[in-house]
Each structure stands twice: as C-alpha cells, then as structure tokens.
Design a protein that fits this description.
The structure holds two protein chains of two kinds. Chain A is α+β, with helices and mostly antiparallel strands. Helix content of chain A is 46%, strand content 14%. The termini of chain B are far apart. Classes of the chains: A alpha+beta, B mainly alpha. The interface between A and B is large, with 53 and 45 residues.
Chain lengths: 326, 155
C-alpha cells in the first residue's frame, strides 16, 4: 500500500466525517518518518473542538503485531498514573487505509530525539525517563485497571507466554531455520527464572522516541504494541541492552535503573532477559521480510530490518548466550 | 549484451542519487530513496555472486552437520542428500534441509546428558564457531543494506 499524502488526506477526511457524523476537512497531515511497524500520521482537522489526532496504521503484520491489544491497553491505562494518549477509535475494517488502524489524540509535546546530540540534555532526559519507568513498574496490574486483560499468575507463566508468542512469530515468518536462534529458544525455555517479584506492566519497547516530552516532563508513553503483563526485568534488560544504547552504554543505565526499581537487577536473571530481548528483536525483525516479500508492505526499510536487523540480533543472541556460559 | 545488467543498475543508481533524491521533499521519500540506492548497490553482481555464496554456505553447513553427527554418535541425525539440480532453487532447498538437520542435531544434543545454565548444545557439539562464521558471512552478503532508521521525527 503506497503512502501518498494527498490520498491519505482524503482517506483521513472520509474516515473522520464518518466517525464524527459530520463533514470534516483535514487541514494538515504529515507522516512521521520513524516507526517501522505503523504508518503514523499526525492529522489536524478543521473542527475547532477536535484535538490533533494521531493515526497509527498497521503495515500488514510488520514486527508481528496488531492494533487491538494496544488499543485495549490504552483504554485501560488512560486517566491512570501511567500517562498515555487518549484512545479514540480502533478500526479493523481495511476500507479506509487498506489496513486496520487506531486513532489517539495527540499529546502536547515532542517525541523526537534531537536531544541525543546534546550529551548534557540527553542525560537529564534519560534520568527523567528512567524515573518514569520505575513508576510504571511500581503499580500492580490491578491498580492500573488491567484485570480484564488477563493477568498471568506469576512471572514464570508470563515468561512462558512471551516465549510462545515470539517463537510463534519466528515460525510464521522465517524462511529457513537459524540453528543459533533455535538453540537460544531451547535455552530460554529451559532456564526461565523462578518467580521472584509480582507481574507488572511491561512497555516492551522502551526507547527514545517512544515517549512524549514537554517542558522536561514525560507527558505520555507511546507505541505500546509490544506491551505485556510480565516480569519487569524484561523492560529493564530491553532498555539497558537495546534501545538505551542511544543514550549510552548499558552499565551506567543499569545503575540508574537500580535506583528506581524495587527489585534487584543483576546476575543470571539479567543475563536471561538480555538474551530474551535479543531473541525477541530478531523474531520481530524477520516478520518484516515476509510482509515485504508478500507485497503487503513495500517500504524498503522492511528489507533492511528483515535482513541486516534480523541477522544482527541473531548474532547478538548467540554471543550473549556464550557470555552467559563463560 | 551491452549494457549488462550491472551497467544498467549502476546507471539507475547514479540517476537516483544525483538527480532524484536531492529533489525529494519529505523525510520519508528521502529515506526510501536512500534505501533504494543501497539496494541497487547490493544488486550489482548479485546474479553471479549468489550461486557461489549459497554453494559455499552449503559446503560449510555440511561440514557442521558432519561434526555434529560425530559428536552425537548413536544419536546422529539424517544427512540430507545433495540436490540433482545445482541451480539456485536446488541450492536453496539443500540449504534449508541442512539447517533443519543441524537444528535437529542441536535438539538431539540437548537430549543427551545434563545441561546447566551455562551449558550449550552447540558448544558441546563443537560447532559454535562454524555457525557464527556462517552467520557473519550471511550478514556480509547483504551489504550494504543495513539496519538504518530513516530521519527520526516523532510527534
């Protein structure tokens, strides 16, 4: 499905007219150039009482996710202590954009990360973000109103669920078997950590660019498509070893996380979650190649992620396994 | 025949980089244009490179499987037959079969004896370094297509 601004503008206007039950014109529409799994459009309408809206359009299964669980989570979280954008519509019907999509209200602030070029500012924002991660993990699933989402009985059960989920994506999207990744799957199944802490809300993709910043405050966490109710060590390791590298090396980030998290961070458990997250990233990346090759999304970034990204994370999975074993 | 496929690809890449990309207005279009140029670069010579690459990888995988089977002894897994067709399709199918067999060997090794947190079947089979080398060569094959983010701008 091609991205053509004028067509998208008409499609967005048609959808909003239908959803709001009155004629709506789109005054501004821009596509954000980041975000691999969704085509993300910021839309301003001619309706004075309507907020700016963010359309997140699926890309035919890119990174192996769908909108529905993310939308349900936003509905549960909105208005609570973990800040998220207000969800407006979940639309499964492909008639509007060719794929299912969800719409949220745009949150005041900035999600870009030009601040990474300014080391001092970057470290200040990193501390603020890590503080908000600690807060996210402090609340029980019940306190966050997530009881209807199916809370696993303990972190062992939730880890097994996550393993099943990502293994299933690997099986569905791979072309050939990667013996090193298969070995990792077997190792991850054999070495699930014993439950030591309560199940918590995991964002799943903590990253620069996945929060909205305004006047030094985190206004919202966005891009929840990999979220789950599980062992919060997953989030800790994901941020420290994968996306947090945009801010700096893992060890100082882990030290900051130790200051805000209510559980011990380290040892075999941390190593387990580091390996798990590399495996997860590899599985997510291979999905993009399939949707490109089947013509469901011909964004050329899909090829780069599905080849270089997949192989890179497969290698990191195998290397981390070796670090664990020596 | 001239121009050859490679000469045409180089010409298209030059036009893309020198004429078209500078005229593109949005971040998204520029990111796609850059990715396209990288892919054209990758395509140069691929036609002749790919069969050699696959044949070389298959030979490596056969060696890995032989080593794993030696270590497995009585639990050795079946060795896939070489294809009659040495074209790309046949090489691809053989590659797939070899990878399946090596995966089975890893699982068979996990079935032998006790494994602690720090034990890995590929290490016990003595095939880790070979598999890592194969993975590295795979990544090299895809150069210069890499994992790059287009210009990052968020709401």
């Amino acid at each position: 499905m091609p991205y053509q601004p004028e067509i998208r503008r008409d499609e967005a206007a048609a959808f909003l007219s239908d959803a709001l039950g009155k004629p709506v014109q789109v005054e501004e529409l821009r596509r954000l150039a980041s975000g691999q799994s969704r085509e993300t459009l910021v839309v301003k309408t001619d309706q004075p009482d309507e907020a700016e809206l963010v359309f997140r359009i699926e890309q035919g299964g890119v990174l192996g996710t769908s909108s529905e669980p993310e939308f349900r989570l936003l509905q549960a979280l909105h208005g609570g202590p973990v800040p998220v954008p207000k969800p407006r519509w979940l639309v499964e019907d492909p008639q509007w954009f060719g794929y299912p999509f969800m719409v949220t209200e745009r949150v005041e602030g900035d999600g870009s990360f030009g601040y990474l070029a300014d080391p001092e500012r970057s470290q200040t924002i990193l501390r603020t973000y890590i503080q908000s991660i600690g807060e996210m993990h402090r609340y029980s699933c019940e306190e966050l109103g997530l009881h209807d989402l199916g809370i696993p009985k303990d972190t062992r059960e939730s880890t097994l669920q996550q393993l099943d989920l990502w293994t299933d994506r690997y099986e569905r999207y791979r072309y050939v078997r990667e013996p090193l990744l298969e070995e990792a799957i077997a190792w991850l199944r054999r070495n699930i950590p014993e439950p030591k802490r309560p199940v918590r809300l995991n964002h799943g993709d903590l990253s620069a660019g996945n929060f909205i910043l305004h006047e030094g405050k985190i206004m919202a966490h966005v891009d929840w498509e990999w979220s789950n109710l599980g062992d919060p060590m997953e989030d800790v390791a994901f941020f420290a070893y994968i996306k947090g590298r945009m801010f700096g090396p893992p060890e100082p980030i882990l030290d900051l996380l130790r200051e805000v998290e209510a559980f011990e961070i380290g040892g075999d458990e941390l190593r387990y979650w580091e390996i798990f997250n590399y495996f997860k990233a590899a599985c997510a990346n291979i999905a993009t190649l399939k949707v490109f090759n089947e013509g469901r999304n011909y964004g050329l970034n899909m090829v780069a992620i599905g080849t270089g990204g997949f192989l890179g994370f497969t290698r990191r999975t195998a290397e981390a396994l070796r670090t664990a074993s020596r | 025949m001239r121009p050859t496929s490679d000469e045409l690809i180089v010409g298209m890449r030059n036009v893309l980089e020198d004429v078209l990309i500078p005229e593109l207005q949005s971040d998204w279009a520029q990111a796609m244009g850059t990715q396209m140029a990288l892919m054209l670069q990758h395509l140069e010579g691929r036609e002749t490179r790919e069969p050699d690459f696959l044949a070389g990888e298959n030979a490596k995988l056969e060696g890995v499987l032989a080593k794993a089977n030696d270590a497995l002894g009585g639990e050795a897994v079946a060795v896939p037959k070489r294809p009659a067709d040495e074209g790309l399709e046949g090489l691809g199918e053989h590659n797939e079969a070899l990878r399946e067999a090596i995966t089975s060997a890893i699982h068979a090794a996990y079935g032998q004896g006790e494994y602690g947190f720090n034990d890995l079947p590929a290490d016990r089979l003595g095939i880790t370094d070979d598999l890592m080398e194969i993975a590295t060569r795979q990544a090299e094959f895809w150069q210069p297509i890499g994992f790059t983010y287009p210009g990052r701008q968020r709401r």
